[in-house]
Amino acid sequence: MNPELDFVLKTIKSRDVHFVRLWFTDVLGTMKSFAVSPSEIEGAFTDGMGFDGSCVAGFSPTEESDMLAFPDPETFQVLPWRPASNAVARMFCDIRTPDGAAFEGDPRNVLRRMVDKAADSGYIFNVGPEVEYYYFKTPDAPEVLDHGGYFDLTSLDYASDLRRDTVLALEKLGIPIEYSHHENGPSQHEIDLRYTDALSMADAVMTYKLAVKEIAIEHGVFASFMPKPLMDAPGSGMHVHQSLVDFEGHNLFFDESDPLGYNLSDLAKSYIAGILKYAPEFCLVTNQYVNSYKRLIAQGEVPARLSWARTNRSTLLRVPGYRPNRPDACRIELRSPDPAANPYLAFSVMLAAGLAGIEEGLQPADPIEDRNLFDCSPRAARAEGARLLPANLGEAVDLFEKSELMKQTLGEHIHSYLVETKRAEWIEYLRNVSQWELERYLAVL
Length: 445
Prior knowledge:
Layout: H1 3-14, E1 17-25, E2 31-36, H2 41-47, E3 49-52, E4 66-71, E5 77-78, E6 87-96, H3 107-120, E7 124-136, H4 160-172, E8 177-182, E9 188-193, E10 196-197, H5 198-218, E11 222-224, E12 238-245, H6 266-286, H7 292-296, E13 308-309, E14 317-318, E15 332-334, H8 343-359, H9 378-383, H10 393-402, H11 404-431, H12 435-441
Parallel strand pairs: 1-6, 13-14
Antiparallel strand pairs: 1-2, 3-4, 4-6, 5-6, 7-9, 7-10, 7-11, 7-12, 8-9, 12-15, 14-15
Helix pairs in contact: 3-8, 4-5, 6-8, 6-10, 6-11, 8-11, 10-11
């Protein structure tokens, strides 16, 4: 018997597991799940579990709706927020068609394909996201729990117990945590996941988001990963630290002979150039909602200018310098993504852009270390000849639709679905008459 399958079956018996939830995401990154009894698990590994794909956003039309979910035994974990008696476990799934082919609309399959492409060139793609979110008293209105700020450890940090319980739950699920702290906004928090390979990390991010929400519910409150829930407070981001290593674990981004003094290899610089070139085209994936752009256009929060540096935090892409002379710490940090993104697709498009930069032999423009780019308006930046991220969802859809790299990376199925769905969202938003407009115009026009 396969040792991984044997481990799953033995753990089900020893931990009194009565339900196994099979997890996967739709194209937009919403978690989907159905439960099976332990007696069905062995058959699920070999034959898959059938479900109606027409019920999942972005999957299949009704006439082609039969899908199979194949659980990944490496992702088996018992859910710590469910009772120990009659326990519940979970496994992430790969989605296939009835003929056994990988389903082109499965986001996990997209990332697996990109990871395999990187491996063909001798690269392992490692990522470490910083995922921010807010706690609110109810899901009906953004009423905060506290008025703390960065790293507060006082009564202002009302939610420290929630963070503690969330971290403990994640560690029980085999997800290592590096940091957890209060963020800048009132009732805003961040938990940083330990650097690992992209596919494992995407699974971890989906688990993290669900765990945060489940623990919040247990405490009688609500957690939200909405990019910009409060007008006068910082939005929530998902800064993604990333690097390429070889199969022996050597960091290919590190080169102590770098003439810039950043300890970056030529490969790392080409990767950076690829990210900066294609960021406007993949912005629809990393920032996929109308609300995402209210975070991006808020000056002082997110750098919209396509720029990079080491110490300058007002650039879009940064080379963290906490341990500048250690090869294992060399990485880049992309600061534009938000936590509402589908992590499978977000990591896929970042990797695709970086690899394209390497394949095309690109070199980035000079780093910008001596200016606060938040003080430079988009109009002034354009006057200087700078390129910017799209200012709204409509612009992002147009750039994404024309992108050959995005079509190749995501496949026709997902690419066309995102164009259609996100353009419809943008049009619906434009048609909406907001309370702000009524208060501003109704009585005076």
